[in-house]
What does this fold into?
Amino acid sequence: MRAREAVRQFVRYGLVPAEPLFGPVVFTLAAKVEGLGLDPFVNNPTKIANSIRAVYRQLPVQVMTSYYDPTLIAEAAGCRVDWSVYPPLVQVGGEPALPPTAEVLRWPRVGVALDVTERLRRLEPDRVIIAGLPGPWLVARQLRFTGRPEAELLDHCTGLVQALAGQLCQKGADIIIADEGGAFDPPARWAEAVIAVWNVVAFHGALLVIAAGPAPAGLPVRYCRPHDCRPTGEPCVLLVPPEGVPDGPLGCCKIVLTDGEIPYTYDIRALPDLVGAIRQRLTAGR
It folds into this structure.
């Protein structure tokens, strides 16, 4: 079974892939292929597509990242993003109003993300395409300057994430990673928000993964980290650190992704060795 179909079967029926699928998430790091700064890179669909393909051709994996940016919706909503630092810094800006969904989807860099995803789907028909966007609670934190009540803000931000995730799936993404920006105490209704995004993504036969955040309850898939990786019989996705090799076998899940993107600061020359070492750990655990 091809890797793309294995992901669809996993989402729709909970069928565990026969072979491991490892997805190292590489996006901003690919800017180094052509020596580009981050700002020109994230705004140029041709440079992104060419650089991403060049990186993944060197890796023994069946996946490819089309776009990955936890700042994307905040920028489309009126915030400024400082790409002179990494991770990029979201700066408060714009009017204290929540933008309508249609306005966010018209933002130029949202168009870039959709364009690259569509291009890579056409150029790499057998690859599992990963697209990363901010999770609903991360967007809500970024847009707190609007002064809206938490519940209203989370509901609106969930709708923005749903809309963008759906568009990415329509353009060919097989896995959507919603990056929540790091550990936090889940607010009331966060699990409901994640389920709402899951439902949109699963409708398209794609897999939603929550990265850099707590493991939400109520989903048909369990998200694991190496410290709590144990066979339970449930469909699961293992999230490994985006740099460095975890200790011990990683044998509890057949779908394994990095817990966010491998950072821009990583030495791109060491990337094949990192991916190879993690694949060895996966093999050792089976």
About this structure: The mean pLDDT is 93. The chain has one domain: 19-284. The two ends are 19 Å apart (CA to CA).
